[in-house]
Amino acid sequence: MSARSAEPGPTLTVTLVKAGRTKICYPAEPVRDDGTRITVRAPWAAPGVRDFGFVRFEPGDVFTEHYWRDRWYAVKEVRTATGRLKGWYCDITRPAVLRGAELLVDDLDLDLWVSADGASVLRLDEDEFEESGLAGSDPPAAREAIRALDELEHLARTEGLAGLLR
Fold it and tell me: Are residues 120 and 114 in contact, defined by beta-carbon separation less than 8 angstroms?
């Protein structure tokens, strides 16, 4: 596998970093890499159930995750073990970096949830973003993060996210 392509076969390790620290690492199956967007598939990686109130992530859920090398977000399509679409969880991140078999993703705290029917579009963790101090320590990155969240929310409320992922 080259440093630019994720091809079906060997497993990648997705490493999610937050504030300079590794938040979680998990194996993922490479699905596609067109040079700009990397798509992987992975089961729910955290232990047990995580109930957010608006959605539950649980063992058996499957995440098809889309990462861009040139965009400040990642979009994760979430399905049950039986294939029913729950919705899309979007992380605002710096552009992803693929180094060998590791996909590095720098999480910038902001998130967006879009329900399967598109009726619920929720901006999440804006308080965490504010508390992170990114606006003071890296103003250009903070502006990109807010712009990316606004872009995804607009897309979710108008065209939906499915078109972005084709």
Answer: yes
* Contact between residue 113 and residue 90 where contact means Cβ atoms under 8 Å apart: yes
- Contact present, 79 and 64 (Cβ < 8 Å): yes
Q: What is the pLDDT of residues 48-104, one digit of tens each?
A: 899 999 999 999 999 999 999 999 999 999 999 999 999 999 999 999 999 999 999
Q: What are phi and psi of 138, to 5 degrees?
A: -150, 75
- Per-residue pLDDT at 2: 36
Q: What mean pLDDT value characterizes the chain?
A: 92
Q: What average pLDDT score do residues 14-32 get?
A: 94
- Token readout for 126 is 């804006």
CB 98 within 8 A of CB 4: yes
Q: Please state, in angstroms and rounded to a whole number, the distance separating the CA atoms of residues 36 and 67.
A: 8
Going along 48-146, which residue ranges are E strands?
Answer: 50-51, 56-57, 62-68, 73-79, 85-93, 97-99, 102-115, 121-124
Alpha helix (H) residue ranges in the chain:
126-132, 134-137, 139-158
Beta bridge partners of 22: 17
Burial of residue 32 (CB within 10 Å: 0-12, 13-18, 19+) is: middle
